[in-house]
Amino acid sequence: MVIQFLRLLVFCAIAKQLLLKIVEVIQFLFLLAFLEISKRHLQDAREAFQFLLFLAFCAIAKHLLRLIWTVNPFLLFFTVYAIGMRLFHKIRNLPPSPSLALPVIGHLYLLRNPLHRSLSWISRQYGPVALLRFGPRRVLVVSSPDAAEECLTKNDVVFANRPCLLAGKHLGYNYTSLAWSPYGDHWQNLRSIASKILSADGLLTLSSIRADEVKSLLHRLARSGGQSVNMTSTFFELTLNAGMQMIAGKRYYGENVGEEAIKFMEIVTESFRVSGTTKMGEFVPFLRWMGLKGVKEKLLALQKKRDEFMQSLIDESQSGGAKESPEAAEGRKKKTLIQVLLSLQEIEPECYKDETIKSLMQVMLTGTDTSAATMEWVLSAMLNHPEILKKAQAEIDEVVGHDRLVSESDLPKLPYLRSVIKETMRMYPVGPLLVPHESVEECRVGGYRVLRGTILLINLFYIQNDPKYWDDLANFKPERFEGMEGVRDGYKMMPFGSGRRHCLGENLAIGMIGLTLGSLIQCFEWNRISNDLIDMTEGSGPPMRKAQPLWATCSPRSATSDLLSGA
Ligand code: HEM
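Predict the joint structure of the above. Result:
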């Protein structure tokens, strides 16, 4: 910060001297010209008057500059700095940018929560490729399908890196976890391990775990007796239970949970608390020295707890003493993720270190959160549009019937349900800015120069809600996706990202979301808790959740009541 400030002072002092000199030179030149013309016996009095006027203007400007300098040198600093930067910006062919980037904080003063809304406003003013400064960091904001395509195809390798942010350092094992790792051999190795686990075959192996978790949720809801249920926490607990069952064969939420579960819940709650505190502050150097010092310590403490917890699960599995829940133990013919990774560790210990296994466990858990948030948006949207809920229910009745529960393998035969999920992900993408990327070398986007080390934010929220690309966009209309199966709609819809760093959990997430919502609407009639529409305002993320938790009531459908008693 000190260097930046000194640089600014030197720049302003030089700029001030230069400006004064320029004014003096102009004055001098005009004086010469005036004398020359008067020598030739000025014929045009108007011309002479204009010369005099200009001389007077220059003299006033010079004195004004001196006055401002004496009265408020800072005002002069800023004016000269802003004009200088703007010129410099233009000459270098950098993308358009809001004029006033304040020293130290840059454009951070323009941003509010939720961030994607502020960035949308900036895109409306400065176009689909805009450059901002978050403190000392350059940030490229892209908000059109064409520009996004350019970043994720032609420049895919250039942008395949992730920026070094606090969360990646302290929670991502010093940038070695899959989501935070820089593009390179280590990332490729992790990605190929995770791709195998999350491949269609890998997911099929663990599908019974997910189905069991959903059945257990249906049981619990059937016992709610028409009382209102907090669906936000219900979805969150469901996805965490399913995630931990796949990872370690454990469930931590529900009835009869023990001490280990309480420890796990504390870690999850703490993760939320801490993740909300890093945000923009980390781009402002003086905050990093002052306020963020505490955040760093909190992150370190959290990571220590998380690491110890995950290690205890690995140790338990290694010693063969995993205490599984009775349902899991009974149904488990398959290995948990930890068991699979430990057996690979025996063959290739260098590739499958304990740290690698723990970071993969964390990635699986992070993904569960985004799935839960999406389920909440989908159910909220359907509760606000009962006719859509009925249509999805009718499709399930016709395709699956009332004699068995929906399964993940039914999803390809339920296009309307899938369209409802897609339309929700269009209007309310839980990753509205994807995950930040960073350029490893200079490149061009939209004809502008993008310098090395620029953070890339793709404003998916803006693209997916831009009237240029979507008809009737304010209306929740799943029908727009009907008949579009397997059609890639350019880069105007990509809730899971695209390119080298696209989401690895897409199939798992779509399977779990479809299975859960399909089962909920197959077995229950759903209602809002009042006549008021559900508030669809988004809170700050990531992931982008609803600002208000979702409460709803459900009562078992008579046609499927047998299914619930036998589920
Ligand atoms: C509705 C649910 C989900 C949504 C909307 C979602 C969305 C995303 C997005 C937008 C990205 C960033 C893409 C980019 O940087 O361009 C991402 C990355 C990632 N997601 Fe997901 N995700 C979901 C669920 C999951 C699940 C369930 C898992 C794992 C079990 C998962 C694993 C990952 C991983 C590992 C990455 C980082 C990939 C990399 O950096 O190489 N996601 N996800």
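The first helix runs from residue 2 to 39.
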